[in-house]
Amino acid sequence: MVGGGFGGNFSKNIGQHIFGKNHQPSIDDAIKMTTVKKAGDRMWIIHMPIVNSILLETDEGLVVIDTGMAPAGPALIKAIRSVSDKPIHTIIITHGHTDHAYGTYALVEDSPNAQIIAHENIIPRFERYIKLGGSLANYMSQPADELPASRDDLVWPTRTFSDRLELTIGGEEFVLQHRKGETDDHLYVWVPGRKAIAVGDFYQGFLPNVGNGKRSQRYVEEWAETMREMAALEPEVLLPSHGEGITTGKAIEENFVVLAQALESISEQTIAALNKGIRKDLIIDSIELPEELAEHPTLQVKYVSAKDISKMLLKQYTGWWNDIPSDWSPAPWAVRGAEIAGLAGGIDQLVVRAREVMKTDLALASHMADWAWMADSDHPE
């Protein structure tokens, strides 16, 4: 919430029920909080809690890019119908994350003949969501019974592609370009006739979510390349999935290039240190963005830091070992915690010291809390 809900309104209900298409308080929040903003001729950004959907009207019907979280489906179709009564011709999913792909059911109920297009990697992604429902519920802090349990719980694309797909809808060209970024099924949509680009999560208006410790692999270097590729198209309208749109081409280019430079800087620092054989924790501690990038308004730290992004690169290029010798085959945490507590004079003494340290060094105090907990999780203090 402090970070701004990914650039939009925040709903605690929706945040805790992102898969919950039958959770009425979340549905009510989405309807109440969703707004529609015109982004150009027959173009709108639909701002839902946490995430946006993009709506483009053509002579052949509507094109919808991304469909929000599951509870937002009814709000999205209501917002669409507030500006156009044309049938939905095409639904494009920029990637399979829950906040971009789970409101699709409401649009299909409205326009059952709409084609649904996504990159081919969304299929194994959705299959993993079914396979790992309990794990996802844990890491995403969601009710397990709301996670998809079978294929019938998801709306699957009617058409997929591998690299690039060019569509003509209502006499207009839509270019869907796959590039790895936040996911391996990520794509952006370029509409050359309107000089408009829908970027999915490639641009978020802050240092992007590319170093998330609870998520599967994300692709820092490819992300940077994509930002430069999109900047070279010279778009004049930015249609983002998070935050506000931009209609000044110069600002769009600057923001895209600045993000590319930031990701390139983190990548170069990390890889250079890896090649020098520097221990991983020291690599992470050393990562800093150049001052002119760190202070840029579109690179604010709201969700992950430059150090977190370095961790994702280390995950991509190296194994699970952290370079600490004893962590190759470590003693169980309970044994370590008990030994440290004993050295401290008992768990009570460890807890007293942790409460003192937390006033000045919360990170170190958190280690102490872990040691005490692992030593005896039933201890009342």
UniProtKB/TrEMBL annotation:
SUPFAM superfamilies assigned: Metallo-hydrolase/oxidoreductase (SSF56281)
CDD domains: metallo-hydrolase-like_MBL-fold (cd16282)
Transmembrane feature ranges: none
Pfam families, sorted: Alkyl_sulf_dimr, Lactamase_B
SMART domains: Lactamase_B
GO molecular function: protein dimerization activity
Domain Metallo-beta-lactamase, residue spans: 50-242
Protein's name in the database: Metallo-beta-lactamase domain-containing protein
